[in-house]
Specification:
The chain is mainly alpha-helical. It is built from six helices and no strands. InterPro entries: AhpD-like, PTS1_Protein.
């Protein structure tokens, strides 16, 4: 479920933080090389979500509309909304990784799960 997955993601980020050298950690409420705070507070939400949808379309190619439609009709609207938020606010942000690098990370993350 979404709750289980989000809990795992949060715990994984805390584990990553504990294994990251302090010199590589961002200061709380300090400068962020990702500019995510700017996306959250300064950029119109519609622009961020449009950027995310464009990135999703590039990653999934000709099946992107079908995949998003399946998520929207999965029995809860939360799956489609969560995907739109993740792709808009996280994956489509190219301030640290390029779009190509991010798509490689996404594919690499799916390989151990045997997701098609």
């Amino acid at each position: 479920t979404l709750i289980k997955a989000s809990t795992k993601a949060i715990n994984a980020l805390f584990s990553l933080k504990s294994a990251t050298p302090p010199s590589l950690l961002d200061e709380p409420l300090g400068y962020s090389p990702t500019a995510r705070p700017s996306d959250l507070y300064d950029v119109p939400q519609s622009a961020v979500l449009h950027r995310g949808q464009s990135f999703f379309d590039k990653v999934y190619g000709k099946v992107s509309k079908r995949v998003m439609s399946q998520m929207d009709r999965s029995g809860t609207e939360d799956l489609g909304i969560t995907a739109r938020l993740m792709y808009g606010y996280i994956f489509s942000n190219t301030n640290v990784l390029s779009a190509r690098e991010t798509s490689f990370v996404l594919v690499a993350g799916l390989i151990p799960q045997d997701v098609e």
